[in-house]
Amino acid sequence: MMSLAIIEDQLHKCGYKTDSDVSELYLGRKGLKEVTDLSRFRMLRYLWLNHNKISKITCLTNVCRLSELYLNNNELCDIAGSLKNLPSLRILMLNDNYLTKLQDTVKELKGMTSLHTLNLFRNPLAQDAGHRLYVIYHLSSVQLLDRENVTHKEREDAFKLFNPEQTAVIQSIGFGRRTDSVLPVRRPLVKSSSASCARMSLGNKNADDQNRYKNRAQDVLQTARQRSVMQYSLLDWSTLPSSSQKYREGQTFQPAQFRTVELR
Question: Which residues form a coiled coil (predicted)?
């Protein structure tokens, strides 16, 4: 196999005496279509396979200490089952390949809890406008994605998009208790022209969310009203007879009436 001869040549150039001495291996730009099994290099941490013609990865089954892997600029169409045994991986370059299945690709990388840097750009799956938030949500350890830092706002947006149920629960927490509905949005008491313009510009964006939570918000509002009611009773003095009326013969009077007042 061509890759075996190239590997032996690299080991000789680097002066490695035993396989356990090998911590890094450069096999980039060698015209390789496949790579022999690398499990003999138990201490391998850095591996360059970039700029080759590799279409399938079968050489990394027992290289568990690998920290950096460069597979960019190859002919990979699918990585399912080929990278899941790399729990220590921190840097993974998969850009400039032919990966099309976003969900399968992310599923393969989920076990990499130390993954910090990931490149997926210039793959067909990167044409999906929502692929970045999908990756951010499912691979929470990634800090640098496609050469751009992952922001706190992107994490919030990803959480809201892919976990709407939990988002609704978080938004519904109030008065020290959790409810199963979202709280109604407060409306401004005074309408201004600038506020009207702002609402018009955001109207289309917020319309779906408002329709979605409208019924649930009404239920929560009703519950909130019931919880916040204060009431007290007072005597209605207008229903009591005067002292002169009390002693008039032949007159009867209704019992004193009480009036209940509710405050919200």
Answer: none
- Domain residue ranges of the chain, discontinuous segments joined by +: 2-150
Closest CA to 133 of 142, 112, 124: 142
**Cβ-Cβ contacts under 8 Å for 77 (sequence gap 6 or more):** 55, 97, 98, 99, 100
Q: Is the pTM of this model over 0.70?
A: no
Q: Which two tokens stand for residue 63?
A: 């290289």
Tens digit of pLDDT at every position of the chain (264 positions) = 688 999 999 999 899 989 999 999 999 999 999 999 999 999 999 999 999 999 999 999 899 999 999 999 999 999 999 998 999 999 999 999 999 999 999 999 999 999 999 999 999 999 988 999 999 999 999 999 999 999 999 999 999 999 988 777 766 664 455 555 545 555 554 444 554 554 555 555 555 555 555 566 566 566 656 555 566 566 666 766 665 555 555 566 666 676 776 665
Instruction: Specify the fold of 2-150.
Output: 3.80.10
**In the numeric block, which tokens belong to residue 226?**
């019931």
